[in-house]
Specification:
The chain is of the alpha+beta class. It has one domain: Nonribosomal peptide synthetase, condensation domain (Chloramphenicol Acetyltransferase), CATH 3.30.559.30. It has 6 helices and 9 strands; from the N terminus they run E-E-H-H-E-E-H-H-H-E-E-E-E-E-H. Strands 1, 2, 3, 4, 5, 8 and 9 form a 7-stranded mixed β-sheet that branches. A two-stranded antiparallel sheet has the order 6-7. Helix 2 crosses helix 3 and helix 2 crosses helix 6. The longest helix has 20 residues.
Length: 226
């Protein structure tokens, strides 16, 4: 890695169009977006790296272990989450990608390992700093990207007489991880950001452009928010 990061931020994407397509296929918004990313990464590797053999990439996905709030005013400052490995299988066709990705995501959120790993990491964080760094650095080598999916506020954020139209955010990648992909939903719009180390991906905008093309194939031309 050369520590030079490059980023691509998507245009505003119509959340309702994507949700309707996901519902038609018996899944949710996250499954749809990750399926489109599967198609996009497959094509990107073929075109940019002439790689036709890679069948999956390893993602680091943060999973929140906090209890669901009982009321809209409930606020918990305890950042209780666990980073889990997720093997994103790469496909050429959406009809193959969606059921596979939806099934894999369902397994990761209903299994016991997240809770066991959370307690293990709490123990690790008590180790001396040089030991923690060695363990976390070794852990990060298993991943290509971190992946973050966040449902933000449904209504615009207001500041004085101004209000937000859309928002995006950049997730965190750790140690030697080559980059991150983040998805943020806000005010009926979806924003996707791709950040990558220049040594690992020279053209993140190329991947974003492929993502646009795959969205059009899957959802039609109305996915752009107006």
């Amino acid at each position: 890695m050369d520590c030079v990061k490059q980023a691509a931020i998507s245009v505003d994407i119509n959340q309702q169009v994507l949700m309707e397509k996901a519902k038609q296929n018996g899944g949710n918004l996250n499954s749809l977006i990750m399926s489109v990313l599967s198609l996009s990464l497959k094509q990107y590797l073929q075109e940019e790296a002439h790689d036709t053999k890679t069948e999956r990439i390893q993602l680091a996905i943060p999973l929140s272990l906090r209890e669901k709030p009982k009321h809209i005013t409930d606020f918990d400052v305890n950042n209780d989450l666990q980073v889990l490995p997720f093997r994103l299988r790469l496909f050429d066709k959406f009809d193959d990608a969606f059921p596979a990705v939806a099934s894999d995501l369902g397994k990761i959120t209903t299994s016991l390992p997240p809770f066991g790993a959370a307690h293990m990491h709490k123990v690790i964080m008590r180790f001396p700093s040089f030991v923690r760094f060695w363990i976390l650095n070794d852990f990060s080598k298993r991943f290509t990207f971190s992946y973050n999916f966040v449902h933000g506020p449904r209504s615009p954020n207001k500041l004085g007489q101004s209000h937000s139209i859309s928002q995006a955010f950049f997730g965190v990648s750790i140690c030697t991880m080559s980059g991150q992909i983040s998805v943020f939903c806000h005010n009926g719009k979806v924003k996707v950001t791709i950040v990558a180390d220049k040594a690992a991906m020279k053209h993140p905008q190329k991947l974003m452009d492929i993502f646009y093309g795959k969205l059009t194939e899957v959802c039609g031309p109305k996915w752009r928010s107006t």
